[in-house]
């Protein structure tokens, strides 16, 4: 709010008795804003500014898109026999793996979608379609590395990731530090920038019936 004070004072020389009122504008309800115009008659060029003090006009405050962008990703895969289980780039010992065109790393796929979505670059299926033979059985860490390259080529860098994996089995919490380290190395970011949580669906739905695993991810990116 303080960035408005120098602008207001250059547009018109307000009396000192008005300054305390200005300092409390942010906390006042919008019905009180017309009070300014009754206390002092500002020049016509100031009316649009006063009428839009809350929220601030975009010309007076950097647009969110110039500060940060946020993307959301979701992925789900069913269990299948004779498949290895890979989550977060880490191999997990389990009788069943996940079914997919690649190695079906549900967590990495959700993170890739969140990163691509934040940058306005579509989704993982657009860049790495499951109809393309070159991606059959591919290590999802390669897809994550390619996604980071697309992100940086577009002029962005990772701020942070917050992800949740939903599974009844296996228990994933013991593997989270390895997942963080593995993905941080692939992405070229600090481990602290990658938050991973694991939970269950309390035996509800397809995850609760142990038919598969789901993952959700939110990514924040910033201009490089």
Description:
The protein has 224 residues and is α+β, with helices and mostly antiparallel strands. The chain has ten helices and seven strands. The protein has helices at residues 4-11, 19-23, 35-39, 47-51, 64-67, 106-118, 124-127, 140-153, 176-187, 205-208; strands at 69-80, 85-87, 90-92, 97-98, 156-166, 194-199, 212-223. A five-stranded mixed sheet has the order 4-1-7-5-6. Strands 2-3 form a two-stranded antiparallel sheet. A hairpin with a 2-residue loop joins strand 2 and strand 3 (90-92). Helix 6 packs parallel to helix 8 (140-153). It is globular, with a radius of gyration of 25 Å. Residues 1-28 and 36-42 have low confidence and may be disordered.
Keywords, separated by commas or semicolons:
5-stranded mixed sheet; 33% helix; 224 residues; alpha+beta; two-stranded antiparallel sheet
Question: What oligomeric state do the depicted chains represent?
Answer: single chain
Tell me roughly what share of residues is in helical segments: 25-40%
How many strands, what sense, and barrel or not for the largest sheet? 5 strands, mixed
Percentage of residues in DSSP E strands = 15-25%
Structural class by SSE content: alpha+beta
Q: What does the average pLDDT come to?
A: 83
Low-confidence stretches: 1-28, 36-42
